[in-house]
């Protein structure tokens, strides 16, 4: 604790707490509101933060169970939310595994081997990563349209296309893993090679087991990136059954068909797992991200 | 999308690498040379000469390798040739380059390191660089909803057009063991049967009809309902009677004799068989035009030079909205950076204070907006800001008696976007600032306390000057990210309210990216070329930002 404190410190401390609490309240307002709305009756209900007549109508629909009202009428679920969530998770899992595999091997070469064109390739990756894929959507669509005529599981309106398209975004992960590899002393691998291991064996049996933490971080980052990806999936996927959550969710809020309550339940339902994963992992994610800032 | 995963972030990663570099430098005395592994990479290691990783004898694995290589090349070659035959030059070239490099790396032992990086570089090449170049290319053509095909395809389309020339005959559709067959009753000329309708219909190769006697057993005719179901497919087939006349489906019960409408008369010239009128291919407009200059759709894609670019800069109905959107895009990205940084810095400074208890709680609450997936929180705001039953307006109504129309008034819509984006973006700045603040020595604040400085003095004279340098590349990355923040605009306002008097779909809250997207993909638009031209301009801007960022963050490789 600092040795010198101004006299007014105590009042300022209370003011700080008050300001922080007020700010937190404002920040949390939308999140609390949407939870509250998911328990309200109907799609246009208004009211206080704690609903007067809480109902599970929207939650039942979000979980895909038709809801029977008190007057006996039955409402069918408007959209297959759980299917969308499953699509998102499926695509994200496969693409993160692929990204992890490919970016780890690349990062190994960038960190440990010397070859022509290494620096330009690394820098070029960083530069090209800045170009948003939204701008080349016409080309990406055309590319998968062509591919699909020869390889059907890679065509437009297939999950394979979305997975493969995500492989364009590996540069960031390669840099992260490469940085970590460089922080590990190479002498162990050297020793293994002197003892007769191949380069691949040295990489696989020695370096990889030491890098599990960074691999976990990259996996989670790739997973969350893929779940929240919108532009490419919105162009490549068409059938309602094939949509991912990020593309499907907006269908609740079309002006002609405004399902505010149903949306709230679906949003909370699908948002909680992703938020939980992030909060659970944020120590590592944030650590890797801010540690870098400290350089001059 | 939370900021840590933003594509343009050269910087969040770079410093880690940079820092580790210095550490690696310190360790270098341990190394034998800077790249010990590579020294042996090209030589077969003792272990490899004895056995292979799978324990198989060496000739077997070598044989397998070559077999695999041959299979890969055969498949790649097939794909490339198929694309080339279809006239897809760009895609054929892409396939050739990527598979060629792969094949070369596989057989060349000196290319050991490149084999490791090939998959990721290829991914980048195929899904980032190629689409980028392809988009730039489209910007110089007239590719759009009405100019989708190539000239050869349009010519073929015209040559396949037919007109009703003669009599009509009744037909029935029969299910035979080999597939469905048409039975056509040509009255006095006899009854004819088509071969089974299998495979893709091809107008250039008509099906030859044969007399019914030779065709064998046909089975019962299908009901009209089933003919209706197959109507679309049936209409594609052209049949040729033994006397050479062409027949095509006409309605649901009859086929009619048809004649080709055009015949070719030299390259790029078609003559109408009925009227004798000449159509010539206009390579500037991308249409076949008749003598009066009237275009006959469909159009084809032609090279247009800088026409799209000059349209953006000179045509008032495009230029005005473009300039307006351009200015708003800069304002939006700049203001977002300023707001999120200001908020993040103030909060980080407050949390930095030793006397504040419960930091873990505040920190968790404050980064919540960052943890919730952006596509969900943006849609939540879309509902909350709704004019009639959004909770924000209900609150404002009860407090101040007003119900602003957030989605119809341009100024309010922009305010709303900035509010939402600040909510989404400040946690990233908060986290960055919290990390950076720890690097500032505490005694500087003690010294300033002795001199009686206020917290504001501390912020402006001690904290900010020391933060700004390491923050700069991150701020540029954040600016570039928000410059292209497509998801926010698309999910929140879809660009609306619209700009009045624009001929392209343009809204007052559109960013350049969402504007481009709408020109290309919205129903009324489909002007891919114009969208690509604008995208090319954005590419130049983004490229400049990326280079600046790379320079400022002093990336070491």
Automatic annotation (TrEMBL), chain A:
Gene3D superfamilies found in the cross-reference section: MetI-like
Keyword Cell cycle assigned:
no
**UniProt GO molecular function:** ABC-type maltose transporter activity
**Cited InterPro entries:** BP-dep_ABC_trans_perm, MetI-like, MetI-like_sf
UniProt-listed PROSITE patterns: ABC_TM1
* Residues of the ABC transmembrane type-1 domain: 85-281
Q: Which UniProt keywords apply?
A: Cell inner membrane, Cell membrane, Membrane, Sugar transport, Transmembrane, Transmembrane helix, Transport
The membrane topology term of the UniProt record is: Multi-pass membrane protein
Does the record's keyword annotation contain RNA-binding? no
Q: Which SUPFAM superfamilies match?
A: MetI-like
Q: Name one GO biological process term.
A: maltodextrin transmembrane transport
- Please state where this protein is localized: Cell inner membrane; Cell membrane
Q: What is its main location?
A: membrane
Q: Which family does it belong to?
A: Belongs to the binding-protein-dependent transport system permease family. MalFG subfamily.
Its function, per the record, reads:
Part of the ABC transporter complex MalEFGK involved in maltose/maltodextrin import. Probably responsible for the translocation of the substrate across the membrane.
In terms of PANTHER family, this protein maps to: MALTOSE TRANSPORT SYSTEM PERMEASE-RELATED, MALTOSE_MALTODEXTRIN TRANSPORT SYSTEM PERMEASE PROTEIN MALG
Q: What is the protein named?
A: Maltose/maltodextrin transport system permease protein MalG
């Amino acid at each position: 604790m600092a040795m010198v404190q101004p006299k007014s410190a105590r009042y300022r401390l209370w003011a700080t707490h008050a300001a922080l609490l007020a700010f937190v309240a404002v920040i949390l307002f939308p999140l609390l509101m949407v939870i509250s709305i998911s328990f309200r009756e109907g799609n246009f209900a208004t009211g206080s933060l704690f609903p007067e007549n809480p109902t599970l109508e929207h939650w039942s629909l979000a979980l895909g169970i038709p809801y029977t009202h008190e007057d006996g009428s039955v409402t069918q679920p408007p959209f297959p939310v759980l299917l969308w969530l499953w699509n998102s998770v499926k695509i994200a899992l496969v693409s993160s595994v692929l990204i992890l595999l490919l970016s780890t091997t690349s990062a190994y070469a960038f960190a440990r081997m010397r070859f022509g064109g290494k620096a330009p390739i690394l820098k070029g990756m960083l530069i090209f990563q800045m170009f948003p894929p939204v701008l080349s959507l016409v080309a990406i669509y055309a590319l998968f349209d062509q591919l699909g005529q020869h390889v059907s599981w890679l065509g437009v309106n297939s999950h394979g296309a979305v997975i493969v398209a995500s492989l364009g975004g590996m540069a960031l992960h390669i840099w992260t893993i490469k940085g970590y590899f460089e922080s590990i002393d190479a002498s162990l691998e050297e020793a293994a090679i002197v003892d007769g291991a191949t380069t691949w064996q040295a990489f696989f049996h020695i370096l990889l087991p030491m890098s599990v933490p960074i691999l976990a971080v990259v996996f989670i980052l790739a997973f969350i990136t893929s779940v929240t990806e919108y532009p490419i999936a919105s162009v490549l996927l068409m059938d309602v059954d094939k949509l991912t959550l990020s593309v499907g969710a907006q269908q609740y809020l079309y002006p002609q068909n405004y399902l505010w309550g149903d949306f709230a339940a679906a949003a909370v339902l699908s948002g909680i797992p992703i938020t939980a994963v992030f909060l659970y992992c944020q120590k590592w994610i944030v650590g890797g991200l801010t540690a870098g800032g400290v350089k001059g | 999308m939370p900021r840590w995963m933003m594509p343009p972030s050269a910087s969040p990663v770079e410093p880690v690498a940079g820092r580790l570099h210095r550490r690696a430098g310190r360790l270098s005395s341990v190394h034998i040379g800077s790249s010990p592994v590579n020294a042996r990479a090209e030589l077969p290691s003792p272990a490899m000469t004895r056995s292979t990783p799978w324990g198989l004898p060496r000739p077997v694995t070598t044989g397998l390798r070559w077999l695999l290589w041959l299979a890969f090349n055969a498949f790649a070659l097939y794909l490339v040739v198929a694309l080339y035959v279809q006239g897809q030059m760009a895609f054929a070239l892409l396939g050739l380059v990527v598979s060629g490099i792969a094949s070369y790396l596989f057989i060349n032992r000196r290319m050991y390191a490149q084999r490791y990086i090939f998959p990721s570089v290829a991914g980048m090449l195929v899904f980032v660089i190629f689409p980028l170049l392809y988009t730039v290319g489209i910007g110089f053509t007239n590719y759009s909803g009405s100019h989708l095909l190539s000239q050869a395809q349009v010519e073929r389309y015209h040559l396949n057009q037919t007109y009703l020339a003669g009599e009509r005959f009744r037909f029935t559709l029969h299910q035979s063991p080999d597939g469905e067959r048409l039975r056509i009753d040509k009255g006095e000329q006899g009854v004819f049967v088509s071969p089974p309708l299998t495979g893709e219909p091809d107008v250039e190769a008509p099906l030859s009809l044969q007399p019914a006697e030779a065709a064998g057993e046909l089975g019962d005719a299908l009901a009209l309902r089933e003919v209706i179901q197959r109507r679309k497919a049936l209409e594609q087939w052209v049949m040729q009677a033994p006397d050479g006349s062409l027949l095509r489906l006409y309605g649901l019960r009859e086929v009619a004799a048809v004649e080709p409408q055009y015949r070719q008369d030299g390259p790029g010239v078609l003559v109408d068989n009925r009227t004798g009128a000449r159509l010539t291919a206009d390579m500037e407009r991308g249409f076949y035009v008749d003598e009066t200059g009237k275009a006959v759709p469909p159009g084809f894609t032609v090279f247009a030079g800088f026409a799209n670019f000059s349209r953006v800069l000179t045509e008032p109905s495009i230029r005005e909205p473009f300039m307006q959107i351009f200015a708003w895009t800069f304002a939006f990205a700049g203001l977002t950076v300023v707001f999120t940084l200001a908020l993040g810095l103030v909060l980080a400074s407050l949390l930095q204070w030793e006397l504040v208890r419960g930091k873990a709680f505040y920190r968790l609450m404050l980064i919540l907006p960052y943890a919730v997936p952006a596509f969900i929180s943006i849609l939540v705001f879309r509902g909350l800001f709704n004019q009639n039953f959004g909770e924000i307006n209900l609150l404002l109504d009860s407090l101040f008696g007003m119900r602003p129309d957030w989605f119809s008034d341009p100024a309010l819509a922009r305010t709303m976007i900035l509010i939402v984006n600040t909510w989404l973006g400040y946690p990233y700045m908060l986290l960055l600032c919290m990390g950076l603040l720890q690097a500032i020595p505490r005694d500087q604040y003690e010294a300033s306390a002795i001199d009686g400085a206020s917290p504001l003095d501390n912020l402006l004279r001690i904290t900010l000057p020391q933060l700004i340098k390491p923050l700069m590349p991150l701020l540029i990355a954040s600016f570039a990210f928000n410059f292209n923040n497509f998801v926010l605009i698309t999910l929140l306002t879809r660009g609306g309210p619209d700009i009045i008097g624009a001929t392209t779909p343009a809204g007052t809250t559109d960013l350049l990216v969402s504007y481009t997207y709408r020109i290309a993909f919205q129903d009324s638009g489909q002007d891919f070329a114009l969208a690509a031209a604008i995208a090319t301009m954005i590419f130049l801007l983004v490229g400049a930002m990326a280079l600046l960022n790379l320079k400022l963050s002093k990336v070491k490789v």
